[in-house]
Amino acid sequence: MTKSSTKKKDTSPADVSPASVDHLMSLQSHLLLEEAKHPEATGQFTWILSALSLSAKYIAARCRMARLEAVLGEVGNENVQGEKQQKLDVIANDTLLRALGTRHGVAIVASEEDDKPAILHTETAGERPYVVLFDPLDGSSNLDTGSAVGTIFSVLQHDRRAKDAEGSVLQHGTQQVAAGYILYGPATVFVLTTGNGVQMFVLDPSIGSFLLVDSDVRIPDGHKSYSVNEAYSASFPEGYRNYLAWAHNNGYSARYVGTMVADVHRVLLKGGVFMYPPTDKAPSGKLRLMYEANPMAMIIEQAGGKAYSGTIRTMEVEPEAIHQRTSVVLGTASEVDRVLSYLKD
Ligand code: P6P
User: Fold this and answer.
1) Which CATH number fits domain 225-344: 3.40.50.2300, 3.40.190.80, 3.90.830.10, 2.30.130.10?
2) Which mutation among 286, 291, 329 tests ligand 1's pocket best, with the greatest number of atoms within 8 A of CB?
3) 293 Cβ inside 6 Å of ligand 1
4) Is the predicted pLDDT of residue 249 greater than 60, yes or no?
5) Pocket mutation for ligand 1, best pick of 89, 113, 138, 296 (most atoms within 8 Å of C-beta)
6) How open is the CA angle 202-204-207, to the nearest 5 degrees?
7) Which of 66, 201, 226, 317 has a CA-to-CA distance to 207 between 20 and 30 Å?
8) Where does the chain hold its CATH 3.30.540.10 domain(s)?
9) CB of 127 within 8 A of CB of 170?
10) Ligand 1, residues 144, 233, 235, 260: which to mutate, most atoms within 8 A of Cβ?
11) Distance between CA atoms of residues 50 and 69, nearest Å
């Protein structure tokens, strides 16, 4: 076949816009557009998501400057998880609390870094108050080496009937009204779902705005790739080991950053499967149900994928404790089904 000579195509400005978006839309304008579709909306939900956007910009700036501002490394104590707290964990956590604290629609916040949920505005929270849960800086120990880190968040309706703050927070993942994450990597990427598909925004630091780059993210099929920390595979339950043996014999590639946000973002955009199985060290799995697994599960399902904890759909796992851990298998539906077929054997 002869190589056809092709004149370099003139690329006018119109041709360089993100393929899936033909408007210039910021996260703020997207949120206001969505709010306008709901006459009953009070604006509180939009206000909460804008606090998350503001926090994300601030945390991104702190991450970029961490080594120069000497805020890398450990604080010198452990958080409620018994993990060495990184200085930026504290900065990110404080940032989110300060931003959400000004939003009267937030009745309660729950953070990976704090033992108990914090009650912010139960009396003045208006008629539709919310609960916001977050992992302020997921994968923070990777920061020192320049690897991507992230923030993960989950939004629930505050349950006024609950006897205490914990009771309102402990709702199934299916009750989430919004979920998302911010990836602090070469770009700062805000991925959001409010139950109508998944939207992706990228921060343009020159104007300080998150710009819409994909209005309906769909997880691709057919990517032969898995993401797991195989160092622990000897202690994985047999079904996971059998799946990995099959993948090794069928030309799969392995990718693993060790930051859930980075690994899940790659699976969202490329397809494949991310797993954190039970191990000897973490018999229930390592990841936290309420503010890591559930929000990621909502994103993946809204993008057409599946998310399971063992053989139970992650968002249907019974929440029993704020910092409850769970195993996770999430990604392309057909790949998750393949893993499940080995778990059920
Ligand atoms: P491991 C980061 O510490 C984290 O909580 C997730 O972001 C990540 O997926 C997981 O732990 C990595 O754990 O045991 O592979 O280092």
Assistant:
1) 3.40.190.80
2) 286
3) no
4) yes
5) 138
6) 145
7) 66
8) 23-214
9) no
10) 260
11) 26
Q: Which strands form 118-119's sheet, in the order they lie side by side?
A: 118-119, 106-111, 130-138, 149-157, 178-184, 188-193, 198-204, 209-214
Measure CA of the first residue to CA of the last residue in the chain; give whole Å.
49
Q: From the CB of 29, is ligand 1 less than 6 Å away?
A: no
User: Can you spell out the DSSP letters for 193-243?
Assistant: ESSS-EEEEEEETTTTEEEEEESS--PPS---EEE--GGGGGGS-HHHHHH
What's the pTM?
0.91
Residues of the chain with CATH 3.40.190.80: 225-344
The residues pairing with 119 across neighbouring beta strands, listed in sequence order, are 108
- Better-scored residue on pLDDT, 181 or 68: 181
Say how many Å lie between the CA of residue 170 and the centre of ligand 1.
23
Tell me the torsion sign for CA atoms 151, 155, 160, 164: negative
Which tens digit of pLDDT belongs to each residue from 257-270? 999 999 999 999 99
* Residue 4, pLDDT score: 41
* Ligand 1 atom having least distance to the Cα of 276: 9
Determine if ligand 1 sits within 6 Å of the CB of residue 147. Answer: no
Entry field: residues in the chain: 345
pLDDT at 124: 63
Bridge partner residues of 138 (DSSP): 150
Q: Is the domain defined by 23-214 classed in CATH 3.30.540.10?
A: yes
pLDDT bin (cut points 50, 70, 90) of residue 137 is very high
